[in-house]
UniProtKB/TrEMBL annotation:
One of its GO terms (molecular function) is methyl jasmonate esterase activity. It comes from the Eukaryota. This is AB hydrolase-1 domain-containing protein. It comes from Coptis chinensis. InterPro entries: AB_hydrolase_1 (IPR000073), AB_hydrolase_fold (IPR029058), MES/HNL (IPR045889).
Amino acid sequence: MYLLQDPEFLENLQTKKFVLVHGEGFGAWCWYKTVALLEEAGLIPTAIDLLGSGIDRTDTDSISTLADYTKSLIDYLQNLPEEEKVIVISAVLPQVILVGHSCGGASISYALECCPKKISKAVFVCATMVSDGQKPFDVFAEEDVALATVSMRPIPLGPIMEKLSLTPANYGTSRRFFVQTLDDHALSPDVQEKLVRDNPPAGVFKIKGSDHCPFFSKPQSLLKTLLEIAQIP
């Protein structure tokens, strides 16, 4: 159990930086409760708007690739200041804990492939934790659910229909964690279990009573889970 008033909690973390990546139809705004709670805990959260999402007004019909859709995230990771790296025993530790929600799982998978050395841990929150050669849409195709039911803005179809190329040398070097939402009607617990079986992460955490958006329905439980993951050596 974490104690916010315990100075050892922050001292024992390899990184205090969280980068939060929204799912389909949402934007950075959806993390506002999580951002506030992480800041209260003494951590440093950053929420990213993907292309055509949130306040970014790019026409979603013009977004055809996952590389374009995820460019803001990749740019952020690549531009992290060198002086913010932590040096321990002459080794440069990865700089951020990357958190992706729903189809944001494809975006953080892509980031793991592009920038593995910048990422300490990757957390898939009821997210599309796909395998090499799989499309994000394949995950939702197993459900009788239209993506529009969880969308606040139109979805660029190109990125979620694109097969990801994920290699052991990059994607495979980062530790992944999956957060299951047990009352999810957009990505059912059964499908989430299948994702975990098909592409096993380093750990699985479960949030009871949460729908597909734990940052709204169970923000404190999500915070507790993120802090537990942050403390894993």
